[in-house]
Amino acid sequence: MQKIRLGVFFGGPSVEHEIAVISAAQAMAAADPAKYELVPVYISKDGLWYTGPQLLDMKNYADLPKLLSQCQQVHMLADRGAHKLVAKGRGLFAKTQELPLDVVLPVMHGAHGEDGCLQGFLELLNIPYAGPGVLAAAVGMDKIMMKNVLAANQLPVLPGLWFTADEWFAEREAKLQQVEEQLGWPVIVKPANLGSSVGISRADNPEELAAALDEAANFSGRLLLEPCLTDYREINCSVLGYGPKIRASVCEEPLTSNDFLTYQDKYLGGSGGAKGGKMGAKSGVKAGVGPKAGSQTGAGMSSAQRRVPADLPSEQAAEIQSLASRAFTALDGCGVARVDLLLDKTSGHSYINEVNTIPGSLSFYLWQASGLDFTALIDELVESALWRQRSKAKLTYSYDTNILAGLAASANGPVGTKAGAKSGLK
Predict the structure, then answer these.
(1) Do 4 and 37 meet the contact criterion of CB atoms below 8 Å apart?
(2) Which residues lie across from 4 on neighbouring strands?
């Protein structure tokens, strides 16, 4: 059987760059070598593309300049349907190499990879790729638009208020008063288009709010504010599949002593030190689970302290799985996503907090707990890419018309030429 040449794209100019590297290393370690010929494509923080077998070993990233000096710089051949990377060899007489790809697996978090930019580029090249399409990626990355889409589909979300960073800097006092009147205290401030809890802060008064908005404005031109639940549980659920063929994983409950799940909680094993370790031991939290998720590839999102499955009544777990699946469908999701929800202990209500369309560690630990190992998860992601490509092939993208021929004929005459010159013929 001929192997599928699987291009794994990761890194990118994003504040979540390092997390993407870890997630990609985990995915490449899990891919079945009997089925796939891996082509790692690392995108640096300044946007340059590299490939080489050295990128497969996580230990090499400790010295990034040395690693990249051993790799080949590449670019994608801008030929729709060619599906090839082009690499120029080293030395004066080095030949240019072409590296064909059958499927692309984007493992990129944040800007320029999870927001629809890379997906749009792959669409132009007509290359099969796994994960969200342009629409799902763009909407899922923008917290304001995502809230609007979910609410329009009768899915429960917290009320929100948003404005631009420019509006905040120009009308500081008015915006502080608007937030206090519409949301009250405490509030959560979020950059509109970042993940991994970067730039998120809680504010309990106008002074803290001003500092939080200044911080968020460093990362995004649009700022989202929501009421901060003071007594709640965070419950996450992954959704996998495409079109009508989707299913939800078991639920998890991330554990943190902070007001919200921080970057340190998610990727550095929590911020509680020995105290956090004791809590994990007592509660049966599973950390770093999954195939090859240890020292060779980094633990990534799988290092967070969590209960898997979450301690929930079966009816409530089923409701959360249903909400997660509906949110995935509302965004036109494809591949694997993680839907994060908040359970208000006071009111008993559930709210969808966000949809991560390329989740950290590809949520493999949730699927492993659901009976699907990481290797099989990669297989299903590749299948989702091929399904979408087959679906697109059935669509009509152009018409055969005589419009341009007619314009050329009319331009030959004096009337047509004059009309074209006067009107700026388009």
Answers:
(1) yes
(2) 36
- Supply the pLDDT for residue 79: 84
Question: Partners of 9 in the beta sheet?
Answer: 41, 106
Say what the pLDDT of residue 96 is: 83
Q: Which long-range contacts (CB under 8 A, 24 or more apart) does 80-86 make?
A: 80/124, 80/125, 80/126, 81/125, 81/126, 82/125, 83/125, 83/127, 85/7, 85/39, 85/41, 85/49, 85/51
Q: Residue 293: what pLDDT?
A: 38
Residue from 114, 89, 112, 113 nearest 99 by CA: 89
Q: How far from 86 is each of 2, 49, 96, 100, CA to CA, in Å?
A: 22, 10, 7, 9
Q: Which of 32, 56, 30 is nearest to 42 (CA)?
A: 56
User: Of 53, 23, 26, 48, which is closest to residue 38 (Cα–Cα)?
Assistant: 53
Residue 261's pLDDT is 52
Neighbours of 297 (CB within 10 A): 26
Q: pLDDT under 50 in the chain at which residues?
A: 263, 266-268, 271-296, 417, 419-426
Phi, psi of 306 (to 5 degrees): -160, 160
DSSP H or E run through 265 = helix 263-267
**Rounded distance, CA 179 to CA 72, Å?**
51
Q: Does the model's pTM come out above 0.70?
A: yes
Q: Residue 403: what pLDDT?
A: 75
SS3 category, 373: coil
**How many Cβ atoms are within 10 Å of 170's Cβ, its own excluded?**
11
**Residues 111, 362: contact at Cβ < 8 Å?**
no
What's the N-to-C CA distance of the chain in angstroms?
52
**Per-residue confidence (pLDDT) for residue 90, from 0 to 100:** 67
